[in-house]
Amino acid sequence: MRQLLFCLAALLGLTISAAADTLPPPSQPPKVHVRLIADRDGVKPGSTFTVAVEQNIETGWHTYWLNPGEAGQPTEVKWSLPAGWKAGAIQWPYPIRIPVGPLMDYGYEGKVWLLMDLTVPADAAPGATTLKALVQYLVCREVCIPEDANVELPVVVDPKGAGPASSTAADFAAARAKIPAASPWPMRYALGQDLRLFLASPALAGTARPQDVQFFPAQPGEVTDAAKQSFGVAKDGLVVSLKPGGKMAGLKNLSGVLVLVSADRSVQALEVKAAPGPVPAAEMGGDFNFWLALAFAALGGLILNIMPCVLPVLAMKALALASHAGADRRHARAESFSYAAGAILSFVAFGLAVLALRAGGAAIGWGFQLQEPIVVAGLALLMFAVALNLSGVFEFQPISAGDALARKGGLTGAFFTGVLAVAVAAPCTAPFMATAIGYGFTQSAPVVVGIFIALGFGFALPFILIGLWPAIHRIFPKPGTWMVRFKQVLALPMYAAAGWLVWVLAQQVDRSGLIATAGAALALGLALWLWGRMPMLAGAVKTGVTFGAAVLLLAMVFALSFVAGAKPPAPVTVAAHAGMPSEPYTPAKLEALRKAGRPVFIDATASWCITCMVNEEAALSRPKVHEVFKQKNIALLVADWTNKNPEITALLEAHGRSGVPLYLYYAAGANDAKILPQILTEDQVLKALE
């Protein structure tokens, strides 16, 4: 019915347009400006070159993809070419979802390039010629306007040919990167109450898990376009949940485009050609992620209250409220909310501080902070200190000012009790917290603040309930000897966490960095042991021990400075990459290989880069590529940007890139590198290596 209404509306628009032919021409300019752009200055007889049909769309309007969705019409290009010239089909870039009222369109906004390959006849006469095309399209906002544009492109036929135009090379590379690539991973689907598409890729279910996934059907009726889509991970891949359309039951295969958005916001579009088959169970995400994160944050904050370092503070204040709750219920309620305010604001302040570090930190984002060895070493020492505390080596002594404020009665005392409790709980973790916080730091600032508010609310909830209903305090265990045993048990996973972080550090620094970390841990342990002895001392002895602990802490900081300056471990000279022998990239290694006369292929990649993995599977891992590498004795250098590396960053910037992937080929004796497309095919790699 919607399609019928749209067709009637379009017919009415055409009728009105025909009737308006007798009227003066409209004063409004077209909503889309169209032009043709060639990828080279001259074309060779018998060759194929690429032309971009550029649509510059007015803000607020959109044109349509191959499948326009629930309403619309795709762009058509009708060429008027000289005899013998041939034009290929439109190479459609991946679209976006555009809601229009209750409908969902698939199309483009802003500026879009539709690429088409043109073939020059072998007997084309040298000289200038003009290519003409009629571009017809529907441009829509609240209303739809059929427009067309007659465009021309002058080209020069040159028997010598010409290379790609340098002025448009980057734009054509960006346009080609938006064209869906053949999937290196098998796909299958299952039709039940919902339509589930499975992409068999363990990497996408692990370290390279995308942040967002969208499916665009190739044919109308395969899915319900306006329905929400969700995705989740299974054991060996990615599962996308869709609402089937009316025509899905009669189809033998599912086709379309799957768009994956990585953690670094890069986009990879894959062609979907899926046959029916089993789809594993998966926990679906989608629009429930934010609310689930809030629930996890609140639950994690609530669990923090059973930590031994927090429970005594809560019990002390809860009993204080309960002792006078019956006399003045209103005052007890006010104190409970004052405590909650102190706790929640402290969590929010912590979240805002992290956001500030994130905004002023590395361009790759907060999620990669463990790439810094000094951060890993610092976290290992923190876990070690917490473990020593839980083992009973020392106890944190409250700051006198904060403790005095916490001991005060009234609303001020309750507020600073919340602040003090959060400060005590800061080193602690609880189940569900990591999931919630990890999700938050991939989202916008308001989402992060919301998650930390939920953490504070969960943390303060028992105290709020105790303030409102003092009898509830009886369900909480009273401090006793069991807490000492519980603390000692909790120390074990903290020691394990510290050990794991040291193992991570061993992948980032050489032996000197590990020795410095061990020295820092020894100095910290001795300083904390002295701290634990201080309550039993007095006078000059206590002053001397305090001085000794301070010196040891300075020694720890001094040792950590060596970690910051430590070199990475010696790289493996030969490793497997894409099934071929490889070496880590360094400028010195590249220079040495080129001076020796060897051809060099550089693969700038990262373990979290989906596009990189697609290219590795679809092109670099192919037997024919391996054979050419072996025949020509091509050296493969891998510039792994998984960890921060200034040399690789400089390599990217030198070639106009701010991220991976980047593929460079230095032929033997060549002065400059040949830059390959971001989306690779086997044929493109073989052609570049010729």
TrEMBL record:
Question: Domain of life of the organism in this record?
Answer: Bacteria
Keyword annotations: Cell membrane, Cytochrome c-type biogenesis, Membrane, Oxidoreductase, Signal, Transmembrane, Transmembrane helix
Pfam families reported in the protein's UniProt record:
DsbD_N, DsbD_TM, Thioredoxin_7
Q: Which lineage ranks, top first, belong to the organism behind this chain?
A: Bacteria, Pseudomonadati, Pseudomonadota, Alphaproteobacteria, Micropepsales
What GO CC terms are in its UniProt record?
plasma membrane
Q: What is its main location?
A: membrane
Q: What is the protein's given name?
A: Thiol:disulfide interchange protein DsbD
Limits of the Thioredoxin domain: 549-690
